[in-house]
Write a structure and sequence with these properties.
mainly alpha, 6 helices, 0% strand
């Protein structure tokens, strides 16, 4: 139980730290946020729990392919915020775009014979 609370507090702490740093220094927060901290934490927790390096390798491979469809949202958010008049409509549109790109990515990977 203590292990799961530790995982929770460390993982949540990363998110809280990024948002607090962003209030003071957006550039620093953007750099920290761009690091694959979530993936690194997931790799660590998964390895500690399973000791399965092959599983981590497969997970890293899948993560690579599913990061790609998320990238356009980061580029489009500033434009969407201006064009759609605010954060929530832009976020909703960005999420819809990302889901569509996930579906496209999965279809293309399947056509290319890539197994995740």
């Amino acid at each position: 139980m203590i292990y799961y609370l530790l995982k929770l507090f460390i993982s949540a702490g990363v998110i809280v730290a990024v948002t607090e740093i962003a209030k003071r220094n957006n550039s620093a927060a953007s750099i920290i946020h761009s690091l694959p901290l979530t993936s690194l934490l997931a790799f660590i927790w998964l390895y500690v729990e399973t000791k399965d390096s092959a599983l981590i390798g497969r997970h890293a491979f899948g993560t690579f392919w599913f990061v790609l469809p998320t990238l356009p949202m980061f580029l489009m958010m500033p434009w969407l915020i201006k064009k759609l008049g605010g954060f929530w409509p832009a976020l909703g549109t960005g999420i819809i775009l990302t889901v569509a790109l996930y579906a496209l990515t999965m279809r293309l990977l399947k056509m290319a014979g890539v197994e995740l």
